[in-house]
Amino acid sequence: MKESALILVFACFFSITNALWPIPRHLQSGSTALTLANEFRIDTSSIHGVPQDLYDAVGRTMTVLKHDHMQRLVVGRGPGDDVDLGRAQRLKRLALEIISNTNHNRSMNEGDGNRVMVNPLVIHHDHLLENTENDIDSGGTPYGFPHCEIYEHDGQLHKCNHLQSIAANTALPAEERDESYTLTVPSDGSEARLRANTTLGLLRGLTTFSQMWYTWDNWTYTVEAPFEILDEPYYKWRGLLLDTARNFFPIGDIKRTISAMELTKMNIFHWHIVDSQSFPLNLPDFPELVAKGAYSSSKQYSTKDLDDVISFAAARGVDVMLEIDTPGHTAAIHHSHPEYIACFEKTPWTTYANEPPAGQLRLTEPTVVNFTQRLFSSTIKHTPGKYFSTGGDEINRRCYEEDPVVNKTLTESGKTFEQALATFTNRTHEVLVKAGKKPVVWQEMVLDHGDLGLHKDTVVLVWISSADAKAVVEKGFKIVHAPSDYFYLDCGHGAWVGAFPDGNSWCDPFKTWQKAYSFDPLANLTTTQSTLVLGGQQLLWAEQSDPFTLDSTLWPRAAASAELFWTGPTHPNGQKPNVKEALPRLHDLRGRMVQRGIQAVALQPEYCALRPHACDLV
Amino acid sequence: MKESALILVFACFFSITNALWPIPRHLQSGSTALTLANEFRIDTSSIHGVPQDLYDAVGRTMTVLKHDHMQRLVVGRGPGDDVDLGRAQRLKRLALEIISNTNHNRSMNEGDGNRVMVNPLVIHHDHLLENTENDIDSGGTPYGFPHCEIYEHDGQLHKCNHLQSIAANTALPAEERDESYTLTVPSDGSEARLRANTTLGLLRGLTTFSQMWYTWDNWTYTVEAPFEILDEPYYKWRGLLLDTARNFFPIGDIKRTISAMELTKMNIFHWHIVDSQSFPLNLPDFPELVAKGAYSSSKQYSTKDLDDVISFAAARGVDVMLEIDTPGHTAAIHHSHPEYIACFEKTPWTTYANEPPAGQLRLTEPTVVNFTQRLFSSTIKHTPGKYFSTGGDEINRRCYEEDPVVNKTLTESGKTFEQALATFTNRTHEVLVKAGKKPVVWQEMVLDHGDLGLHKDTVVLVWISSADAKAVVEKGFKIVHAPSDYFYLDCGHGAWVGAFPDGNSWCDPFKTWQKAYSFDPLANLTTTQSTLVLGGQQLLWAEQSDPFTLDSTLWPRAAASAELFWTGPTHPNGQKPNVKEALPRLHDLRGRMVQRGIQAVALQPEYCALRPHACDLV
What we know:
The structure is a homodimer.
Chain A: H1 2-12, E1 26-43, H2 52-67, E2 89-98, H3 113-122, H4 133-138, E3 150-153, E4 156-159, H5 166-170, E5 181-185, E6 192-196, H6 199-210, E7 214-216, E8 219-231, E9 237-243, H7 251-263, E10 268-272, H8 287-293, H9 303-314, E11 319-326, E12 341-342, H10 349-352, E13 360-361, H11 366-380, E14 387-391, H12 397-401, H13 404-413, H14 417-434, E15 438-442, H15 444-447, E16 459-462, H16 469-474, E17 478-481, H17 484-487, H18 513-517, H19 527-530, E18 533-540, H20 547-554, H21 559-567, H22 579-595, H23 606-609
Parallel strand pairs in A: 1-2, 2-6, 9-10, 9-18, 10-11, 11-14, 14-15, 15-16, 16-17, 17-18
Antiparallel strand pairs in A: 1-8, 3-4, 5-6, 5-8, 7-8, 12-13
Helix pairs in contact in A: 2-6, 7-9, 11-14
GO molecular function (chains A, B): beta-N-acetylhexosaminidase activity
Pfam families (chains A, B): Glyco_hydro_20, Glycohydro_20b2
InterPro entries (chains A, B): Beta_hexosaminidase_sua/sub, GH, Glyco_hydro_20_cat, Hex-like_dom2, HEX_eukaryotic_N
């Protein structure tokens, strides 16, 4: 049987292509030249009810195939000397298919074999949700669904759901998104095939396909055909945080960042949209917050901007998670609601906050709880995704201890600060849970204030140190790795606070891509605890960043975690990820980013980029 | 007398404007609003024989006055609330004047007072060349010259030189350039005056003038009139090195960098144009070098490009110094002349070079000496400036010890390596000296190989450590500070060599602007030795840089040394330079760079930039 043979082959190959990032979980490639025919097309005709965002993804793929003028990173930059592209086979068609187990009699006639091809991926680790037959009939799961109106099963007619859009798949909880796909590109010019359970899986496969091709003269070609790929992410959360409050980023920059996330198959954009320094979020229910809290009238995000970014991202398989950090990091609310904020701009700021200006929500006050509830409600109306971060980091006790309002209420109620914080947190998280959202918090909410009674579905971001992950999972929470000692992209540029001539970055040194790439998501965790690891994300806090430096600060560094959390601990060559193998591929990714308008920084002299391993330390 | 009064005033003021960088040596400003009138113009009518590049500088100044939409860095970004700009006086005219002692009867009728105004600057330190009466009559000095055809002096008629262009001034040896100027901007709307001995001095004053103004609504205004400025650089060499061999930079990027240098009054662009990784310099006499040594046909600098950059720079008071590093850092020559290069790409590279690929000129061979002489001759034909760097850093002994050709010649001649290096250096430097150039070398040529008999005018770049400066001046050479421990802009981004997962940058940590700003050019030097300090420069080696990161890597950091070496150890407030005072002005400079298309990075959250000292460490 064809599929069994394929599985056998996958078990014994070790060659690695230089082109793909993240490298697929299972990959076989050859050494045959293949060109794209002029009439090459991506064919969705076997899929019924193609959603618009899949059509758009196909269109984008065709565009980059045409416009990526990506020459191979070899001396001379092209194969003209040693490969006769004119004699190579030409690929005319990439056929897209949605695999459905309940759809035996439709255009795809391989039958159950399609499942066999995908399932081996699913069973390789135990924390991914398996596609079971039960899922197929449950009607509520939006992945793996038949692209039909009515289908026959067990002798009865069933009504099908429509094929879910990429955006709909992206709005699911991370654990429930199915991003798996298979991709075969024969070397003989016969049809290439991309198959997936979901449109989101097809998107991931299209991205892989788009990374296979180089340009020389008028050729679009590979020299590594055939390709056989079985792929799906090892971890379900592959995120990137951007802070738009310390310094503002126009939505063009955010959308470009999301495009780069799509290219690296990242799937959660953690938007730290407001903070003590500025409040650029323009909510119709709270016009005063932005009017007084934004840096200027041009440095704001309207709900139209939000919708624009979110829909742009969703179509690219990227879920946007907003963060409104509370009760700390809220000084900017003072400008419109001074009565809600304790210790505003109190000096010395070092006593009352981790960063200037000081200022925290008076969390003891019912009016503040109510305000925060309404603020969250108002915000999540605009976010189709399941996650919303309420922050909770770096709460300054002294700020509250010296605040007369908070003190009075605590004294009168006989409550401790921790009890007040628990009440504030639970009351404000209620709003999220009732709306079907999962609260996301920074690690202090679990480790620093006793048991706050957080909802069991709360996701915890581990940031202070990678060593803190274990303590959080021991409390039973799902975690996302965001450790400052590996993943903070802002470190290493000296102190940004003033009058500190010898100051270094608090999280020195600079976090290289190699450092991020060496992170072990399961370090010190038991097997059971490992199931609580959702994934990880790199982060850019913007004290020393701005739109000019955005791309080069993020890319290609953030691609390190993208591969780490997609491909997981075992690469298709059977080995662990290592920086020596990865570097040539990362040069390639950087080159492709540049082709697509992302100003990713050069990692080495071009001399080295053109000569894999010539500049390795030996 | 007016001038005497002015000097008195200069001795006792302490207020500092937030707008100027580098801050003038002597500066008084007020707190009166003044706007530019719609009909504002810069008037050169008192100057006879205005060279085209001064006209162009006036035109550029008018352009930036119109197009810098630079709002004040205050909360609200404008003075609308507290200053009635409509009622402010309007400045209609900035008059430019060339001061000439021998020109008593011409349009400027203040007589010798003009000299009095400038001379106090000159005598503040002893290593600047003084303008003496003798200079005036010497005929050969191109600064301070009368703008006339014939003038009367001591009862006789003398023929005047024509007024020298900015470019001609810039091509002088650094010590001989006169960049001094005075600038007065009254608050009552009466004529502002910019006076200098040279067109180069006028250019510096125009730059200062252009930094004084902000935009609000339709106003171009200052709130700090009147201004009284006496200014000239404390050090004559304020440089910036860019390496275009590890990674290539198109000339547009180089010209933008030079524009930023003009804005900060830097005056030497040290162009490390070729190296072992690539040879992008296209010399008509050596077409093979670039044909084989450039990364690609699009990554080359033609002599037309050179002329373009050099004339662009010269018109902006920036002298371009090319560097062709020899005998090391020359592996790229192998591609066209394998017979000239020892140990090409020999592995492990760590044994034979500081960076891959290994490869050094076979300095013992007469053909190589001849080649290098011709290479230098061919290059300096295109550089009007007085400086040319022959490098001389990081010579690898092992490379030569294992090279059969070099060994054979040494053995047959009975010479040591040091003797061969001395011969090579003197023979190749001869070409420069005969052509009126001053050789420039890295510190090893003085400290590491015994006495090589360098020409007394050789300028030495101290780079390995700031502590090495003393050893070099003790040998009697003029130095330029370029210490890696203060001024290397590439440090701190991790190792760029491959397969080195935990590698840090060799010159960790990142060199902040504060670090550069804290440098003491005269540390450990005697008064006599101090006269050998020409100045200093920050440096960008491009292993991990590219056009995308150029601006944000350079700016505003490199402005630190620009001010350090322009303003010197005593600021107009009588104090030493300090980062607390400097930061708000540096924010301002960064903002102005952004207005002019230079993507200088944000140093702090905008919250801090708008509130001087709110984010200082306290």
